Amino acid sequence: MSRPRTIDKDSVLDAAEAVVVRDGAARLTLDAVATEAGISKATVLYDYKSKEALIRAVSERRLDKERAKMDAAVLARQGEANALIKAFIATIGQGMDCRAQSVGINLCAAASLDAELRHGWEKLVGSTMTEIQETSTDPAKAQIAFLAVQGLKLMEFLGLYDWPPEERARILGDIAAMIDDPAPTGSSTKELPALQ
């Protein structure tokens, strides 16, 4: 008869995130995670056969949390026009805690070396952008809003600029207001100037 597990997968992933925050994804080892969780390396190996598998599991859990936030924001806007892009803007409006930001930056570094890890993120971004365009009354405006909000999020994520809360709220409000503005974008009829 096998011994019952004394630690669940979330506890192992919590420990992995703690190691990533403290040491970085490049220095994450199964031994370090086991020590952080207070368990044996064999217990970590039981669920995660390699460092890469563990990093992918941490990334998947982060993506699942982002999807859950989006799903809740969409549900709150059910029946509204442009509900998905507005939910996306509202989700970005919630900001990101320091731990999530630190884990995210380290996962980005790991993803630069792991095509399989990047693939999950690419799939999420691509499907979100497609669904936003398909469910918006003006797909061109929705695409511009998506890119604008992603740009704001990326600048904050990388620590390049932190907007004062009032200015950040105003920017996001202006982006959201653009969605419902009846004026056409004109992007579908005008040719863009050549870049020099």
From TrEMBL:
This protein's record includes keyword DNA-binding: yes
Keywords, alphabetical: DNA-binding, Transcription, Transcription regulation
Pfam families (UniProt xref): TetR_C_28 (PF17937), TetR_N (PF00440)
HTH tetR-type domain mapped to chain residues: 6-66
Alphabetical list of InterPro entries matching this protein: Homeodomain-like_sf (IPR009057), HTH-type_TetR-like_transc_reg (IPR050109), HTH_TetR (IPR001647), TetR_CgmR_C (IPR041479)
DNA-binding region: 29-48
Keyword flag Transcription: yes
Source domain of life: Bacteria
Protein name as it appears in the record: TetR/AcrR family transcriptional regulator
Organism, as annotated: Mesorhizobium liriopis
